[in-house]
Structures are given as C-alpha cells and as structure tokens.
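Following the same procedure, sequence and fold were stored together, as reproduced here:

>
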Amino acid sequence: MEGAASLITVVLLGLQSSKFIYETASGILGGPATIEKLVKVAKNLSTLLEQVRGLAQRAKETLGEHDARFFDDFRPLLDECVEELQIIQGKLGRFNTASSHKLWSNVRTYLHEKDFDKMWNTIHHYVQILGSQVAHAGM
C-alpha cells in the first residue's frame, strides 16, 4: 500500500529528529528541569513513532479499507509533527558538535529555559495527539 510506504518515510524522518533532540538535550549538563522534561517527552515520541513505523510496515502487505483510511488521515498530522521536530532540531543543532557547548552556561547564551519549555510543549502536544490517534485506531 502506497499510503503505508510513504508514511514509513515520514515516520523515519520524525524518528531521526526526535532521537537527535533526545540525544542533544540529554547531553546538556547542569541545565534546568525543563531540559529533563524535554528529554523524556522526546523519548516518548520516539517510542510512539517506532510503534507507528512497525504498524505501517506490517500493514504494507495486508491492509483493510479501515486501515488504509487511517494512514491517509494520519499523514497530515504526522507531516506537521515532523516539520515541528525539524525546527526544534535546527535550534539544537549547534550544541551537537562541541561538548563544551553543552554546558548549560554556554547553552543559555543561545537558548533560554522558556525556549526549552516551548519545545517540550510542542513535542508533548504531538505525543498526546498521535497517541490518541493510534489508540483510537486500535493499534
């Protein structure tokens, strides 16, 4: 099924970004609790995206009409999520290369606690929505 295959591609992009966010944020040393919240929610989103990927991979071969509609309806939400993740990844990108930049005292030169709180809110929003969509579909 073409819908499931294209969904897998988008999910892989989301996984790449969510794992980058997780790894980068978890490497920031001495930061506020907001960073730890971001680490946890990025991990939750990665787990959820892994579940969607597994479902889509299994469904590629045997899809019923209900499942096909689910993938078609799910795609715009997933596209939106991946776009937001890539924005966050861009903001965190400068902290991935040099370990000295990962100290909170250096990070806060570029990003403030409220920026991390906004990142958490964005990712948490998608964890809630995607999780409920997957649960609603009975997956």
Remarks:
- The chain has a mean pLDDT of 85.
- Residues 2-136 form a domain with the I/LWEQ domain fold (CATH 1.20.1410).
